[in-house]
User: What shape does this take?
Amino acid sequence: MKKEVERSGPVGYGVGPAHVGYTRTKNATTIMQVVKTKIAGAEVNVMFDSGSDRSFVTLECARKLDLQSVGKESLAYCCFGENESRKGERDVFELRAFGERVRLVGSYSPTDGQKVRQVGSVGQTQKSQVLFCQTELSDGLIRNMWDLDTIGISPSEESAKSKVLEDFEGEVRFENGRYTVKLPWKDEETKTTLVENRVITERRLQGLIKRLEKDSSLKTRYNNVIADLEERAIV
Assistant: This one.
């Protein structure tokens, strides 16, 4: 339900302690200002949303305040957590308070990024426009961008691959009916920075030995495989 409000009167009339509430969407939490107040003798909860173009009232609250519809309006709206807006026809209500009438909807002008001071029952608040830009780039676009920035500065990846392939082909040997080759290192620095995994290997070996001691049939199969590899001169 949509509520177009006209109210006035002493600031802070019928307002209780203010607190901050929140609404949780699927991936984020939106924190909103919430205040408890009295309207026409009925206690209601008011939630302030500075980004909303309209003021809304629930059907339950409208019935509690005995509000009468003064017309209908077609509008598109999007609630928290929704990706697409919905269109519908909503009732328009009018609320009057004691004292001078002050229109709250449609009584402001664009500020073009300037700060606006807002005096309300919960104190002074300031609001202004904030520029936020988020762009998603694929890894391929980022890589191409860096490649353009480093032309002539860093060696190309293709030349490094060619050097590794050249060293690999130069180390291949055919001996005793089989090929032998050394491990292809990317560069000499890699040999010194490579982390030793001897401790991890020994732990795995001890674990395998304990496992074989508990299962004699598994130990026999392991021995048969190793013996076959030795017989064929593979190990």
Summary: The chain has two domains: 2-127, 195-235.
